[in-house]
Amino acid sequence: MRFWLSLFVAALSLITSAQAQRLPSNARPTHYALTITPDLKAATFAGEESIDLTLDAPATEITLNAAEITFTSVRAAGQVAGVSLDDAKEQATFTFEHALPAGPVTLQIRYTGILNDKLRGFYLSKTQQRGYGVTQFEPTDARRAFPSFDEPAMKATFDIELVLDEGDTAISNTQMVSDTPFGSEKHRVKFATTPRMSTYLVAFLVGEFACSTGKADGVPIRACSTPDKVKYTKYAVDAAQYILHYYNQYFGIPYPMPKLDMIALPDFEAGAMENFGCITYRETDLLVDSKNGSVPAKKNVAEVVAHEMAHQWFGDMVTMQWWDNLWLNEGFATWMEKKPLAAWHPEWNMQQERAAELNETLNYDSDSATRPIRATANTPDEINEMFDGIAYGKAGAVLAMVEHYIGPEVFRQGVHNYLAAHLYANATAEDFWTAQTEVSHQPVDRIMESFVNQPGVPLLHFTDKAMDAAQSRFYLSPLTMRASEAEQTQAWDVPTCLKGVAADLCRAMEPGGASTTIPEPFFFANAGATGYYRATYSQHQYSTILQLLETRFSPAERMLFLGEREALMRAGLIQVSDYLNLLRMVKKDDSAAVLETAAGGLLGVDARIASEEDRARLQAWICMQYRPVYDALGKPSKHDSFEKQSLRATLFGLLGFAGDKAIIAEASGFMNQLFRGKLSIDPAMTGTALAIAARNGDPSLYEKIRKASQVVRDPGLKTDFLHTLARFTNPALVEATLKYAISGEVRTQDSWVLLAILLSRPETHAQTWAFIQENWKQVQATLTESSGARIVSAVGSFCTQDERTQVEHFFAEHKVDASERTLKKSLESIDACIALRKSQQGELSRWLEAN
After folding, report:
1. If you average pLDDT over every residue of the chain, what do you get?
2. Sheet harboring 470-474: ordered strands across?
3. Which of 274, 308, 382, 510 is catalytic?
4. Stated pTM of the model
């Protein structure tokens, strides 16, 4: 997956350098005692630390991780150590004149550090009222807050103390056990000893917080924020109470910490972080108006809460041995997050959401630049690149597939056995699939190994007469798809669930189909919509599917089938005309998620295939087809179901995109009400209406939205207003948004989002790309370790050879951290779009002429 070097010596040097960033294995920490004294005004902190460790043999050197740390003194066994730093490896080596004996040793360390502005380590977050000292350590940034053995297998217990200014409070992983005066105008806050845990899960937050409280199964729960937003914290407590009890029952292992805190931070790059007992969140992922918030906003909060709470078992209590098995954390949490919500709110249709994510993940994984679920990761850059659609989406989807194959209760027992065998320890992929194989008596080990250790997506080829389905690897690009036909070296053990006339049948299809017999008759190869594969059918089988699509398929199965046909069209295996005819068949589908899948496909055809002339005709066709469907829904009512609200919002957005004048006027009316402080009967429409109004908006509307994004307190609405600035198409207003994004007035966590939205839109991408190239130094100054790769990802929406050449040359000269694979994927995406447009544009023109 990494680029190949032509010279063996150079390759060997690169591998050796990467492996050298791992710590020596001669020392194992058992306990840390930390005292941190932050100075929020000066953006610095001082630390006192003792590390109890065990040496396997006598040693004169101990190496651990440290970054942006200045050491004052290091002592052990009565000796003062010399300190040497390797900034490139983010390591510090302590050298002692006399060998330290094997066995227990305690390091005593004094040091200072900085509260940085890069949203990593121990960093500074600000509101208009004050500063906050907060932490984000995953994956390799605990070393910026305290010298440590900063690797996931180096688990230890922690005693944490914070020396604070008067008026400041603190939150950490465990409950506070004392708060005592300390000198002049300071106080010392001490927390209870933690369980054994990895360094990246430590958290300590300093500032002023206000909280809502609750309890579940005897565990105190708090949701906290800055004091001005505490009224938005109640819903998260309600969600956490339900989810904690659900997880206790599902896992058969009680929640492992004495309390659960969830804290919304003003500046936070990720959506959330699963620190043990002290989960931190971006404000929009924890805070929502419990009374007036939209159902999608509440659903988002509940889903993020469920994801991070799942980590308290998967990742925190049982942790992967090393980052190459990150999926043991993120894949599990992604798979698990929907289970409690499906039980809590069945009307949210979580299985349909799972199907939508499966379509997205299959597409993400269908290029030659993708990686296996388990991949090599040694350097911080390589580790950061692991946090992608494979670790989250593919790993979660493969788990869902295996669960469907062996049955939910059998799978649950396997999960329990796996967790129980590794409590407060570390585990590997083999540990998991061994537990599932033993409890199910099915070939889960072979299935998991073939999907975890190989990149890409299987494509199963079904025919009328064959007794088994041939396999190949599926590629989303027409060029790669054709090239791959000459050489097929991959095969999978695929648990396939066939939808039959009488009943569904699940079985494992081995490579070559040696032990597989396909029952007759069947008419769909992905019953339950959980299989991680694409499929092709004979013409007879396809005709049967079309006849039964709206009567025998669940909404999730319809979604997966529509997504599959779009993917086959993009791969050059079917014509765009066939795909559009299919979409026309489901235009009156009563599932909002199915219509949303169709709408996404139409937007893709518009962006990737249509010429300017065809774009106008395509949008006119969309208005003609979908306007009557929208009108049939009637006016919004407070009694509308979530499903009906979602249908209306989907059609409203599609018609607004297509330029329906009545919809644009309706969106303008929404805006007028909103600026007068009147909430819509259907709050789910707000974000969509904002985007439609902005697309057709003038400077006056732009200024209203910009001011609203600065003064509105509701985090969700505030973010909607901010992102709407990137929806204007007037070149002068696009320029204003670009300058605003890198001005320093937009929080670092949000500035890249504006650039990414503008890069991804056909109307604004050329102007945005030119601006980024011309102002790269200022753009780069706003980027964090993760957000740079997101800009590189956004240029993957380009679709001309000239733009591809510019992207390749620019990022070759202007390296972006942790984005090597992302750049390869973006370039391949551009290639795929160029090939798709070349092969399908004529067919689209002919179809539009006829329809």
Report:
1. 94
2. 470-474, 457-461, 534-536
3. 308
4. 0.96
